[in-house]
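Need residues for this backbone.
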């Protein structure tokens, strides 16, 4: 297994190239580039894929080369603004355009996976979200197949894709190796699910993992995202045993926000915690 760093970890403090360099210096194997805007923080790439000029693409590749760390995946945070599951038709159309443009960009950057956070706008029923998502994924999956890219659907606590059963059904209906799951162990623990059981249920449908901890379940006062090695509710030992059982050997990506915190220290402590977890399941 290899360890990746999401934009959230170091780009809250440093521009992209410096953040990537520091991720490599700490010891991460690869970098997950976010494309979107989390709360106006300036985090991640703020230019949408279909608006990138050739010189800007080259700059991204130089960032990776200069920092000596590859891109393992792209996180399309922009889909929180342009959900493909329905609601505003123009927003859904724009979301599809963003995914279609991200596929050749990922290929160009050497990343083989694109994370899709699938939101469910207010007023959109589960069945409407399901059918609209399937319809909108179709051209995206075809293009991903042509480029050898995996579109990975993340469990982001949306009702129509709430847990392993729904994610498994969606991936099986799409019926393409270019459509799999990006499983976040913190998200579903937060909503009361058993992540180890869900990992076992999803099996080889999982393409990537996000790792973070949660201080307490959803709905409790002060519930927040926390570092992997800090006190929290995610049963990491059980999670790692489940990951071992499904014979997963890909990227585990640390997605811990560091806004107004010591990003360098948090990046180091999470890497150390992740290395300990990985070592615990090695034969």
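Answer:
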């Amino acid at each position: 297994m290899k360890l990746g760093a999401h934009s959230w970890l170091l780009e809250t403090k440093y521009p992209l190239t410096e953040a990537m360099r520091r991720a490599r210096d700490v010891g991460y194997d690869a970098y997950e580039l976010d494309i979107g805007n989390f709360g106006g923080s300036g985090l991640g790439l703020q230019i949408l894929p279909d608006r990138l000029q050739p010189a800007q693409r080259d700059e991204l590749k130089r960032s990776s080369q200069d920092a000596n760390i590859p891109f393992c995946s792209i996180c399309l945070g922009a889909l929180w603004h342009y959900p493909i599951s329905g609601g505003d038709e123009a927003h859904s159309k724009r979301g599809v355009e963003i995914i279609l443009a991200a596929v050749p960009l990922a290929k160009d950057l050497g990343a083989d996976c694109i994370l899709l956070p699938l939101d469910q706008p207010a007023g959109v029923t589960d069945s409407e979200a399901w059918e609209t998502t399937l319809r909108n994924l179709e051209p995206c999956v075809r293009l991903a197949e042509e480029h050898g890219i995996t579109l990975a659907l993340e469990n982001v606590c949306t009702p129509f894709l709430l847990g392993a059963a729904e994610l498994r059904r969606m991936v099986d209906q799409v019926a393409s190796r270019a459509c799999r799951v990006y499983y976040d162990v913190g998200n579903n623990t937060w909503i009361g699910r058993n992540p180890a059981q869900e990992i076992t249920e999803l099996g080889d449908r999982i393409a990537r993992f996000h790792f973070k901890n949660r201080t307490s379940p959803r709905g409790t006062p002060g519930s927040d995202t926390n570092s992997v090695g800090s006190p929290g509710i995610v049963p990491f030992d059980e999670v790692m045993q489940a990951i071992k059982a499904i014979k997963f050997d890909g990227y585990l990506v640390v997605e811990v926000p560091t806004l107004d915190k010591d990003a360098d220290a948090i990046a180091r402590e999470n890497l150390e915690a992740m290395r300990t977890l990985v070592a615990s399941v090695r034969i």
